[in-house]
Structure formats: structure tokens, C-alpha cells
Amino acid sequence: MTARNLYLNDNCERRTISGSQLSESVANRVPGTIDDIVYLGSSVKYNVTTEIGEAVVRVPVERAVDAKIGDAVVVGWATENAVVLVDDEK
Prior knowledge:
By secondary structure, the protein is mainly beta. 0% of the residues lie in helices and 54% in strands. Residues 24-85 form the Transport-associated OB type domain.
């Protein structure tokens, strides 16, 4: 069996973020730590380090979480909003 790199590609605006538990309707979730928060006027962008890599989450200001850099969060996404990409090149 050959080792492969796998990448998850989805739209960062379709991800969700929570300071606690996500709704059961969110099929995929991974815990992480906030590395950076950027306020973009009508939205907020969170850079989160997770056990599967870096995640960027962008949400409207109304859905922003009360969190700061270093806080533990949960990032989630719907299965239909993600594509797994395989890198076969070595």
C-alpha cells in the first residue's frame, strides 16, 4: 500500500464554529484551538489549528462566537459541502 496525502476541500463560509458542542445536525466535527481572529466588517474569520490540520472558518457577525485566541472550539461542516482530494504524487 502506498502512502497518500489527503486533503479536505470545502467552502470556509459553509463551516460552523462553536465554543462548546455543535448541533447533532452537523455531521462532521473536529476540535481545535483558535490561532487568529480577523474582523472583516460583516463577517469574522477564525484560523483554527485542529488535529487534522489548519481550518479557516468565516461566519457572519451575527453568528460569531464569543471566543479569543487560544480558546478551544469545535469546527463543523456538512458532508455535502466537502470534497476529499487525494495527492498520489510522491
